[in-house]
Amino acid sequence: MRGLTFAYPLQPSEPALRGVTLDIEAGECTAIVGQSGCGKSTIVSLLLGLYNPSPRRRGTATFRFGDLPYSEFEMQSLRSSMSYVPQSPFIFPPSIADNIAYGLAADDAVSSDDRLARITLAARAVNMHDFIASLPQGYDTVVGDGGLTLSGGQAQRLCIARALVRRPRLLVMDEPTSALDAKNAAAVRQIISDLVRGESSLCHDVAAPAKGRAIASEGAGMAIIVVLEDGVKVEEGRSVQELEQASGPFSRLVSGGVWMESDTGNR
């Protein structure tokens, strides 16, 4: 996106984003951070195609996917190549396997064996395979209403596995740890960090065919960290240390306790 200004239809005079320029490169992970209401979720909504980006002026493309301007992109095709992890996990009533398999694209024809292999790889990537395998019915265990009750951390891991099984080219996570306690939040952040560093089995197997991109509205171990304030990009850096040493907006987030902390020592 280049100089993107966006206002929600019901508040046209109050831009949620103002002149934001942001590149999300293939093979990199971008963390967008800032206080509540700064514009993080607005960017997520635009990436998911929930709103059309407001043009800066007629004939100027300010929002592109690859080489194509937003107006020329077929939204169904775009959405079939991306996955989304929401703030609050949602679990369907069927089995664990079905919950993960819901992430497969509608046009992704796979055999039963391939389906199970991809489900298992996704579960391994989020460190749930051993837990699932220990259950009497394994991946056929029913969860949700009338079934096994998962903890908040387990439910969020299952949602991440559902997102990863698709082999997305674009993975979007909107504050995936905001509803978790400190221990489970740290575990989920470690999963994200492992994916970023390529240490997850999924990075070598499930996601191998596509060189993907990831974007999160919070994160540790990201390649690029973008700081938003009141809809404006105010800072960008390649590491937490770089931004802390700059003593700018990110440093103020850290000192104010807004930035997350984890048991791994990353912030």
From TrEMBL:
<dbReference type="GO" id="GO:0042626">
    <property type="term" value="F:ATPase-coupled transmembrane transporter activity"/>
</dbReference>
<dbReference type="GO" id="GO:0005524">
    <property type="term" value="F:ATP binding"/>
</dbReference>
<feature type="domain" description="ABC transporter">
    <location>
        <begin position="1"/>
        <end position="255"/>
    </location>
</feature>
<dbReference type="InterPro" id="IPR039421">
    <property type="entry name" value="Type_1_exporter"/>
</dbReference>
<dbReference type="InterPro" id="IPR003593">
    <property type="entry name" value="AAA+_ATPase"/>
</dbReference>
<dbReference type="GO" id="GO:0016887">
    <property type="term" value="F:ATP hydrolysis activity"/>
</dbReference>
<dbReference type="InterPro" id="IPR017871">
    <property type="entry name" value="ABC_transporter-like_CS"/>
</dbReference>
<keyword id="KW-0547">Nucleotide-binding</keyword>
<protein>
    <submittedName>
        <fullName>ABC transporter domain-containing protein</fullName>
    </submittedName>
</protein>
<dbReference type="GO" id="GO:0016020">
    <property type="term" value="C:membrane"/>
</dbReference>
<dbReference type="InterPro" id="IPR027417">
    <property type="entry name" value="P-loop_NTPase"/>
</dbReference>
<dbReference type="InterPro" id="IPR003439">
    <property type="entry name" value="ABC_transporter-like_ATP-bd"/>
</dbReference>
<keyword id="KW-0067">ATP-binding</keyword>
<dbReference type="Pfam" id="PF00005">
    <property type="entry name" value="ABC_tran"/>
</dbReference>
